[in-house]
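Hi R.,

Here's the chain you asked about this morning:
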Amino acid sequence: MIELSTKKLRLIPLNAKCLDLLINDEKSLEIELSVSSKEVYLDEELRQALKFRLAKVLDDEKNYFWHTNWLIVSKETNSIVGGIMLKGLPNEQGDVVIGYYTFPLYQGKGYMTKAVRKMKDWLLRQSNVKYVIADTDKNNIASHKVLQKAGAILYSESEELYFWRFE
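And here is the predicted structure, written out as tokens:
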């Protein structure tokens, strides 16, 4: 199993079983992965996004890590602090899209910046990846700061979103 690691974090890609447990049975996920999920809060929007990721994982289980949610776990507390979703295999241009979230208790502590950097570095070392893309709501200042600190460049926008790219 692939797992990424920094000095303070573990990034764990969830297979279909573990992704289903995150959505439906966090206590069983704790046991399965030997982590704490006591501060995990999945609002309805995040739960729907995870269900969509699960459907993609089930369609391509061999390449699940390209379609799934990667848990971000603090090594210090062994707690789930958030996640990064990969939104599919690289396209013809070599683009991979990521999305991410931090649970409220862990926001503002630098976890996501470190996790995004680690994920971006790993992705850009894959032979078929040229760019890592993220989009943010225009009013999500915290997310803009994460991407800026991690080295992303703002390259496009729509009425509601900014589009960021790592090269």
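One quick note: The chain has a mean pLDDT of 96.

Cheers,
M.
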